[in-house]
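Comment thread on ticket #2218

A.B. wrote:
> Attaching the input chain for the structure job we discussed in standup.
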Amino acid sequence: MAIITISQGSYSGGRMLAEAVSRRLGYRCVHRDQVISKAAQWGVSQEDLRTAIEKPPSFFGQSQHTKYLYLAFIQAALREEVRGGNAIYTGLAGHLLLGKGQHVLRARIIAPMEFRVAMVEYRCQYRRKEAIAYIERKDEERRKWTRFLYGVDWTDASLYDLVLNLEQMTLVEACDVLCRLAESGCFQSTPETQADLDNLALESRVKANLAMNPDTSDLEFEIAAQAGSIFIKGAIDTPAQVRKIRSLVENIPGVREVALKELSLVTRI
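C.D. wrote:
> Ran it. Output below, let me know if you need it in another format.
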């Protein structure tokens, strides 16, 4: 019951690879648009969410809080979508949004520029020069996005368990490699990995609920979940917010108890 994430530059074959693996293993394909649609249920427009995960940091006006809010909704949607396992996600930074561990097989697919240009020319009806400019712009936006959100270089091979290069192999061969690894003992679900997924999903659900509520939407928290126990760390504006936070979180399905000892009262300038 592995979860596979496939990271790629624009038109590098990631979606075709995901669909091939899905047919071979019987896994569900989860695409970015599905996650955006699910995230929008928290009350944010799909257009704003799509822009938030496609555009570089200048879209936010360097607003860390806007980033925090949108990321909370996107993480909650993605983690809920794949928590049952046997899923493949192709989308920006899936390997970062889902955390690392035995429950996630993090793959990256890269392709020669000629392969990518041909894909853009065919699908978008761009001329060669336009296709190259489009690819370079999209790659730069991805680089800035992951650097802004996570402080990492999205091309860093150490962020992945497997890097597949289409320069010397076909998509069919890449599919064979990825399927063999997914079916190996390294990434099979265990009670411990399922508990990790459940904890991640609950953490995201709590964070998204707090981000959505008007009384706490201007605050930021670190959330940890452990078998239904929720640990919340962050800064608050008034003591009354402690009661509000407790009331909100205790009513979230799956929450058994709430610990708020690490909330600190601060004076904002």
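A.B. wrote:
> Thanks. Noting for the ticket: DSSP finds ten helices and eight strands in the chain.
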